[in-house]
Specification:
The mean pLDDT is 95. This protein has helices at residues 20-27, 64-75, 101-110, 126-131, 148-159, 207-225, 228-231; strands spanning 2-7, 32-37, 50-51, 61-62, 87-98, 113-118, 123-124, 135-138, 192-193, 196-197. The protein has 237 residues and is α/β, with parallel strands linked by helices. The strands form three sheets. It has a five-stranded parallel β-sheet. A three-stranded mixed β-sheet has the order 3-4-7. The structure holds ligand 9D3. Ligand 9D3 is lined by residues 92-94, 119, 122-123, 138-140, 142-147, 150.
Length: 237
């Protein structure tokens, strides 16, 4: 898989993709990730990437042209219909489809080349959406200053689902959400920490009993913290 990120703040991404599962996936050749400065595609002498909104109002709007030129360089076309198979051009925006595990899973399964456009200011010229974007995604109902943190979140959620990306210490099947429940509680040594003891059932070696306990605790925690996951009313699947 190839992931390209378009942003006016390329330095924001620093070493964020150089740790843990993403680093290993890059090292194993499962994914390549490149961050591009939208400003490098600006054509005027001041390299402007934003301008005032038609119709008036506060704030600035990201210009269409630098983003069109970036997509043209990366894909050889600015017509969505002519993108190579397996290409996704994702606009991270508060108006997008909410990110869920299923969305990440679909992208990990089906996409070969993902381009993420990080918005800033009040938004992006709508002609980017009309001509270029295949998917508009939000990471939740809260206001951030731009799409950059969302591109990091989405990249992480996708890359760890690529076949072979997970090491032996973890498994996608046991993830919270893949079975529709939150994870059960975990403990490690010491068995008594500052007077707080580990539940006895985890120490007795009865694996059938341990599995039953873990499922009960997962269900209990889900009922308490995320009842919406149990009623199927949050669009998770
Ligand atoms: C405060 C400005 N708002 C207009 C009344 C609209 C607005 C524009 C741009 C709000 C936030 C942003 C910047 N956010 C993103 O680009 C963004 C985002 C988010 O804010 N929340 C959740 N997911 C995402 S993905 C991209």
């Amino acid at each position: 898989m190839k992931i390209d990120v378009l942003t006016i703040f390329p330095e924001f991404f620093g070493q964020v993709f150089d740790f843990g599962i993403i680093r290993r996936a890059k090292g194993a050749g499962l994914v390549s990730i490149n961050v591009h400065d939208i400003r490098e595609f600006a054509t005027d002498k001041h390299k402007m990437t934003d301008d005032r909104p038609f119709g008036g109002g506060d704030g600035m709007v990201m210009k269409a042209e630098p983003i069109f030129l970036a997509i043209e360089q990366l894909l050889g076309t600015t017509e969505r219909e002519k993108y190579p198979p397996g290409t996704k051009v994702i606009l991270l925006s508060p108006q997008g489809r909410p990110l869920k595990q299923l969305v990440a899973q679909e992208l990990a399964d089906d996409a070969e080349h993902i381009i993420m456009i990080c918005g800033r200011y009040e938004g992006v010229d709508e002609r980017v959406n009309d001509a270029l974007v295949t998917d508009e995604i939000s990471i939740g109902d809260y206001v951030m200053s731009g799409g950059e943190p969302a591109a990091i979140v989405l990249t992480d959620a996708i890359v760890r689902l690529l076949p072979e990306a997970l090491g032996s210490e973890t498994s996608a099947e046991n993830d919270s959400f893949s079975n529709g429940l939150l994870d059960c509680p975990h403990y490690t040594r010491p068995a008594d920490f500052r007077g707080m003891s580990v539940p006895e059932v985890l120490l007795n070696g009865n694996h059938a009993e341990i599995e039953k306990w873990r499922h009960e605790k997962a269900l209990e925690k889900t009922k308490r913290l995320r009842p919406d996951l149990l009623t199927g009313e949050n669009g998770d699947t």
